[in-house]
Amino acid sequence: MQSPESCAIMSCPTTLIADEDEEVADMETSVKAVEEILNYKFNKPKLLEEALTHSSCIDSVSYQRLEFVGDAALGLAITNYVYLAYPELDQGQLSLLRAANISTEKLARVAVRHGLYKYVRHNATALDGKVKEFVVTVEQEEQAEFHGGAMKAPKVLADIVESVAAAVYVDCGFDLKNLWLIFRGLLEPIITVDLLEEQPQPVTMLYELCQKDGKQVDIKHWRKGERDIASIYVDGQFITSASSENKENAKLHAAKAALQKLAYKSTGKTNTEVEPNTEIDGAKQKLHELCGRKKWPIPTYRIEKQIGPAHDRRFICSVQVPIAEGLLFVKGEEKSRVKDAENSAASAMIWGLQGS
């Protein structure tokens, strides 16, 4: 019969904690560590113990009930936040924002960023390997991926975040406002409208672009050994394939590759340079509105180049808008903040469109 003490604590090497290979000795240590991460002292530490206990510890109460509560509590907290923060958005846009902020991919990265996974008691050795692989994958990401990165997020990581949130929620008397005050910091950066515009969902974007061109998209799946393969066809013509251990992740990466390939095949590519002294205030919003009026996809931004040391870093960003005639693409000027560099690129795009 397994005792609670026989359950191991997840211990995966990571740069998020100074002593990378330190193993957590007991649950009391884990509770104290997570309280420090949350900056919250539990009235009932047993709640946090439960939140940090995986169902593989069969002689202990697992986090499953708390995860159920946390899923709903975080969903409502995020709903309240986006509703108050974006009074101009419709129900559909609010739903997209909420979904992005409580997705498995988003919450799993929260668990990695704050090292919460290190303090989970479990008796399933397979979890360690999956979590370790995902931690390494996240550390290698050039930017935060909230639709899905190179590897699908293990659900256990999102479960941890939800169960810990529930432990806080119950401990503070089911006070949603207190939960938000305590937990919001862990969820940063909150995914905003701007971030969704910069990282549109690849599969959705592929269907929308092809639909505008009157083309039919077909995604076919099959399995080869341990991996799922997704192949994308447009009007019956093979475009690209991608593989993953997970069907949805394979489709995601195939869509990303197809977007890049189809963009390069476009009939034209407008590439303009920024005219000196023509920075437009609020250019990103103006460009977004312009694309809306023309019924174009929303503009997407990316960092093209980073210059200088960390304490004096400067950025060059680009913006692109796929349209029926081709791909509109422009780089902005070098700026000290990503936000300003994106605005510079948007300004260049607006001037280029006015001159065309």
* CATH uppermost class of the largest domain: Mainly Alpha
Number of helices: 13
| SS-derived structural category | alpha+beta
- The count of β-strands is 9
Helix content, binned percent: 40-55%
Query: Could you give me the name of the CATH homologous superfamily of the largest domain?
Result: Ribonuclease III domain
Pfam families: DND1_DSRM, dsrm, Ribonuclease_3
Domain DRBM: 201-264, 282-355
Domain RNase III: 31-173
GO cellular component, one term: nucleus
Describe the structure.
This protein has helices at 27-38, 45-51, 64-85, 91-101, 104-113, 125-139, 155-171, 176-187, 193-198, 202-212, 247-264, 283-293, 338-355, and strands at residues 8-9, 121-122, 217-224, 227-234, 237-244, 269-272, 300-307, 314-323, 326-331. It is globular, with a radius of gyration of 23 Å. Residues 1-5, 11-23 and 264-277 have low confidence and may be disordered. It has a four-stranded mixed β-sheet, with helices on one face. The protein folds into three domains: 27-198, Ribonuclease iii, N-terminal Endonuclease Domain, Chain A (Orthogonal Bundle), CATH 1.10.1520; 202-265, 2-Layer Sandwich (Double Stranded RNA Binding Domain), CATH 3.30.160.20; 283-355, Double Stranded RNA Binding Domain (2-Layer Sandwich). The protein is of the alpha+beta class. Helix 12 (283-293) crosses helix 13 (338-355). Strand 4 (227-234) and strand 5 (237-244) form a beta hairpin. It contains 13 helices and nine strands. The longest helix is centred in the N-terminal third of the chain and has 22 residues, at 64-85. Its cofactor is Mg(2+); Mn(2+). Keywords: Endonuclease, Hydrolase, Magnesium, Metal-binding, Nuclease, RNA-binding.
